[in-house]
Amino acid sequence: MRADNPGPFTLSGTNTWIVGSDPAWLVDPGPDLYDHAMAVIAEVEQRGGLGGIALTHDHSDHSGAVPTVRQRFPHAPLAAARGDVDRLLRDGSRFGPLEVVSTPGHAPDHIAFIVGSAGLTGDAVLGQGSVFIAPDPGALTRYLEALRELRRRDLDVLLPGHGPLVDEPAAKLDEYVAHRLDRERRLVEGLEAGARTVPEMLDAAWADVPEPLRPAATVTLAAHLDKLQAEGRLPDGVQRPGPEARTASEPRNASLPRRPTEPRGTPGER
Asked: Does residue 259 have a pLDDT over 90?
């Protein structure tokens, strides 16, 4: 189900996925839009109720509808990789039918879910275009590792957080890895040619990015520079993006409610 929140970062809107029935499991309820939340609730009711709510990450366009959904289903546990939730998830955890694969990069708490041969990828892999990588220690390296792990899963379809479903997962994942390495190659070539300021590095590696997306490119530039520095490949005198780029990895939704009496975790969680 697609929310009516189109934009340069959300594409045609945020995708909410409902898995199974009797009960159904909800992945990324979407933004705080009343009509979308009501449509999601109606579909879940048709499927026999809600087993739980899982977040790929806590950005508000994916988690904003949580309070509204939980008003209708107060006993459904909320699960995510960080925050004051009922179930804290990590790589290898299981939540109902969902298997967790850690996919940090777009956000430090980002995870994907595997159900059968389908991968629900949130903002780790989109149906079209690429994602920004939030600067966090090891973010870009771990993101590339996560893409390769999804590739090893030999999935039949990817169900992304934005854009159409991906019916050729292997090709899309290969494309994502190649795209990120190509950005790195362009950046290194720019540095070797003398680029040192943020605008110069953006011109070297992100010249094709339209102006409205330039801030997102700056965030990803910060992650690329972190990777080069960790690998000992960053020259002296390179200007680093300002603190606004660093805030991209911070939690985006502080309003995720949790019932204090709900136990964290179950014996099935790994």
From this structure: no
pTM of structure: 0.89
- Gap between the Cα atoms of 171 and 15, Å rounded: 21
Radius of gyration of the chain (CA): 19
* CB burial readout 186-196, b (16+ within 10 A) else e: bbbebbeeebe
Q: Which domain holds residue 209?
A: 17-247
pLDDT band at 243 (very low <50, low <70, confident <90, very high): confident
CA 218 – CA 246 distance, rounded (Å)? 10
CATH (domain of 155): 3.60.15.10
Which position has the token pair 């606004």? Answer: 244
C-alpha distances in angstroms, 105 versus 50, 78, 122, 190, 266?
29, 22, 12, 23, 27
Burial call 231-252: b when 16+ CB within 10 Å, e when fewer? eeebeeebeebeeebeebbebb
Do the Cβ atoms of 115 and 99 come closer than 8 Å? yes
Which DSSP string do the residues of 230-255 spell out, in sequence order? HTT-PPTTPPPP-HHHHGGGS-S---
Q: What is the pLDDT of residue 214?
A: 93
Q: Is position 156 within any domain?
A: yes
- 37-56: average pLDDT: 98
Question: Which token pair is 30?
Answer: 């979407």
In a domain, 6, yes or no: no
| Count of the separate structural domains present in the chain | 1
CA dist 230 and 179 (Å) reads 20
- Tokens for 189, please give them: 């070539």
Give the length of the chain. 270
Q: Note whether residue 36 is domain-resident.
A: yes
Q: Sheet of 17-19: strands edge to edge? A: 17-19, 24-27, 50-54, 78-80, 87-88
